[in-house]
Amino acid sequence: RLTELGQRHPVTRGLDGSATEPPHWSRWFRTIGVENPEGEAVMKGADNRPLLLLDRKGEGRVGMFLSDQGWLWARGFEGGGPHVQLYRRIAHWLMKEPE
Description:
Elements: E1 40-44, E2 50-57, E3 60-65, H1 70-74, H2 83-94
Antiparallel strand pairs: 1-2, 2-3
């Protein structure tokens, strides 16, 4: 699900299926724990753990997707999710290019 920041961030704002709570997406079963995560969580997964962290470092941008379960969205598990839209937005944001 989107965090409060995620509801406003250009990467995640208005993602297909995000208008309801919980979103109309399949679940994320596994998230990778990170000690002292840096950046801002725009999405949270299982147990309210960060799923997508985004940050700015110097003149660049970094993102960390903390799961290997994206294929579930692509395969339509439990209705899937907007994986193509999300990955495209992440790539454009990282490259500082408009969508």
